[in-house]
Amino acid sequence: MDWSAVNLEYRIYSLDRAAALEILATMPDLQTPWKKLQGLLTEKKARFEHLVSVQTKSEVRVMSREVEEVIFASQYENADLPTVPKDDLKAASTASATVTRAISDAEAVPLTPKEFTMNKAGVLVEVSPTVGSDGLSIDLDEDVSSVIYLVDLKVTGVRARYPAQPLFESRKINTC
Predict the structure, then answer these.
(1) Which of 16-20, 99-103, 123-127 has the lowest mean pLDDT?
(2) What is the pLDDT of residue 85?
(3) Edge-to-edge strand ranges of the sheet holding 112-131
(4) What global pTM score does this model have?
(5) Do 1 and 51 contact (CB within 8 A), yes or no?
(6) Nearest by Cα to 113 from 158, 64, 162, 68
(7) Which of the pair, 28 or 93, is modelled with greater confidence?
(8) What residue ranges in 21-155 does DSSP mark as E strands?
(9) Are 139 and 130 in contact (CB under 8 A)?
């Protein structure tokens, strides 16, 4: 039998950090965390996100990358905000007068994207296993990262003229 072949499977789940800590902190055996996670999945307090399976041989580094490139404008021309006229500022600074100027009603100046940025959303798994001479133990060097594209951030008022910007969440594990 060829003991140098290595098959690894990575399952990625989303759950509350406190629940994850509880699972990892109370680990009397290898089956307990899995059983707790299954309970959270049933209760819909955890969500299965991704599955990555890699096959390699002892002392051969392997990489699996599944990404989506998200391109968005990061700088704009004509990006000056409308200003409040000086007369309005003087009136607002006197103790007896209150002036309310709805800047959100100011004329929206169209913006032209000047520069773009690209972020890669997805999962990257890099592993380098070394099978021990006994054929049972494995020394594993691994990097697992996940970048999730969550939502486009939108703002109101005068800044609503800016296009929505993407919000990402990043997680990375590097261990031996």
Answers:
(1) 99-103
(2) 52
(3) 62-77, 112-131, 138-153, 165-175
(4) 0.66
(5) no
(6) 162
(7) 28
(8) 46-57, 62-77, 112-131, 138-153
(9) yes
CA separation for the pair 145, 167 (Å, rounded): 17
What stretch of H or E contains 173?
strand 165-175
* Residue type for position 118: M
* Cα(158)–Cα(7) distance, integer angstroms: 54
Interstrand relation of 5-15 and 165-175 (parallel, antiparallel or unpaired): unpaired
**Strands 46-57 and 165-175, sheet pairing:** unpaired
The closest alpha carbon to 166, from 122, 117, 127, belongs to 117
Query: pLDDT tens, 75-117?
Result: 877 655 554 455 544 444 444 444 444 555 455 556 778 899 9
**Tokens matching residue 76:** 């704009």
Could you tell me how many residues make up the chain?
Answer: 176
